[in-house]
What we know:
The structure is a homodimer.
Chain A: H1 11-37, H2 42-52, E1 60-61, H3 62-68, H4 73-85, E2 89-93, E3 101-105, H5 107-139
Antiparallel strand pairs in A: 1-3, 2-3
Helix pairs in contact in A: 1-5, 2-5, 3-4
The structure holds a DNA duplex.
Amino acid sequence: MEMARPDKLNKAQYETLAAFRYALRKFIHFSETAAQAAGITPQQHQALLAIRGFPGRDQVTVSELAERLQLRHHSAVGLVDRLVTEKLVSRVPSNEDRRQVFIQLTSRGRKTLENLSTMHHKQLKQLGPEFSLLFERLTSVDE
Amino acid sequence: MEMARPDKLNKAQYETLAAFRYALRKFIHFSETAAQAAGITPQQHQALLAIRGFPGRDQVTVSELAERLQLRHHSAVGLVDRLVTEKLVSRVPSNEDRRQVFIQLTSRGRKTLENLSTMHHKQLKQLGPEFSLLFERLTSVDE
DNA sequence: TTTGACAATATCGCATTACGATATAAACTA
DNA sequence: TAGTTTATATCGTAATGCGATATTGTCAAA
């Protein structure tokens, strides 16, 4: 018989929040293991996906990449450097605005990403219901 | 007019995967910023939540914490060390099995977590629909 | 055309996190 | 008692990302 305290979370809500994090960490752990098994780092994997999966385009500028990965600009530059060293992406200067540089996947980058994305797609299909359930619980008004 | 290639992802699917990661990184970025504003590190925050939100209990052993955070045992030990230093948790030896040590939140830990969890709860309520939509797209059969 | 803004790059040092490898001690169990 | 489990500890290593700061090249507007 708990009092209705609007701002205070109850045990069940803490459990739901924790369960969400647990599911998240399991997914991330899966993802990091998969990336490393594919011979790249987790961040490199996410960068490849951000480029290939950019809405309406298959190439992005460094600024766009930084935003999609929620990184500072110069952190994104460093990440791209490492990707170029690994021949996973290439830099292509823009013609319209010559300050900009487009980042594109190399064929090696595309293959590596395709492999990983297929695995992730399957995994997320499995996890979907679990996450949906957790969101429902979080959103439920009667608690 | 794309051929039905069972194992090959199309652009839309890459975009959905990338959108999911983007949403995830935005949430994580929010969470990390919030934790740091509360004066603790993101990992400390997640540890606090894992303890407080452990199913059916408000204390956990180091092994349990490691599993919930998907960490190696000795990495969890280090994390607990830092939490103890910050007076966010305390170690309480178990009576039943004296090899075990229970980790409990201190009152400071509880307050810090409550503050953060309230914010996260609200944020996740907002993000719920977006994530659900993305999962629906991932699961959609007709692509 | 000059001035100011923007995009990318670069360097430095720093902090955090987590790992593998390895070891020890204490406590439990068969 | 022997073997296993739990927690702790140490060492070196790696990846990531930040702030601060600076430079270069390019664009756009006054």
